């Protein structure tokens, strides 16, 4: 954790997490820079050593993957000289903290053609590899309709546009690589209330999409920011508590928040 930093994004100010598209355009210059989580790149590089666990690529999408890397490289001002001996997205992942998912159009709809995941929020690479939007969103409340709306955005977003949205949750610990949420939930369930200040962290996903002009693929990026709740300013704690308690039953159930309630009560003000 970077000392004395403020959380770069505070989506709880807008209320509880919502199962909605919620994408908004941003300036293209803000797509990948500044990389607020660049301090995590050494840890990421260690995870990337296990390429099978962190990377997937359908060989048919190699040209689109190279296009995605070239576009991201230009946006970041990087020299674009990828090695032919390693997958393009995997190479890019050593230079940017965001997880990377290349979505490809097809007869069955948009599907995952390639991905690099080192900070997945409670899902694994095998869960995502090759899946369509509808398959990916099946566990989410209202997932079928949400997948349809996302597909419509993918269809109509223009090359050169960058769209952004946020998701957030709380977790017991600062773990970033979390393909399975059960260990965190078990930790929360057995934690004492007097451990809440040191244990409770807010996890924010900053997600973007941009369309590639040549292939028509969409590059979906996920930047995970993890900050201790104890370090938040008082007004942020108040807003976070209000958003937590306003979440509806479907959201709380999907995110399995019940195991955290005693820690939230100890660490955050009562709204």
How would you explain this protein's 3D organization?
The protein has 271 residues and is of the alpha+beta class. The chain has one domain (17-267). It is built from twelve helices and seven strands. A seven-stranded antiparallel sheet has the order 1-5-6-7-3-4-2. The protein starts with 23 loop residues before the first strand and ends with a helix. The mean pLDDT is 94.
Entry keywords:
alpha+beta; 271 residues; single chain; 7-stranded antiparallel beta sheet
Summarize the structure.
By secondary structure, the protein is an alpha+beta fold. 35% of the residues lie in helices and 19% in strands.
Topology:
Elements: E1 24-26, H1 41-48, H2 51-54, E2 55-57, H3 62-76, H4 88-92, E3 99-104, E4 111-116, H5 125-128, H6 133-136, H7 143-156, E5 162-172, H8 182-190, H9 196-199, E6 200-211, E7 218-228, H10 234-246, H11 249-255, H12 261-267
Antiparallel strand pairs: 1-5, 2-4, 3-4, 3-7, 5-6, 6-7
The geometry reads as globular
Q: Report the mean per-residue pLDDT as an integer.
A: 94
Gyration radius, in Å: 19 Å
Q: Find the count of extended strands (DSSP E, 2+ residues).
A: 7
Largest sheet: 7 strands, antiparallel
Task: Tell me the count of domains.
Answer: 1
> How far is the N terminus from the C terminus?
28 Å
Low-pLDDT sequence parts: none
Task: Please state how the strands of the largest beta sheet are arranged side by side.
Answer: 1-5-6-7-3-4-2
Secondary-structure-derived class: alpha+beta
Helix content: 25-40%
- Beta-strand content: 15-25%
Q: What's the order of the H and E elements?
A: EHHEHHEEHHHEHHEEHHH
Helical stretch tally:
12
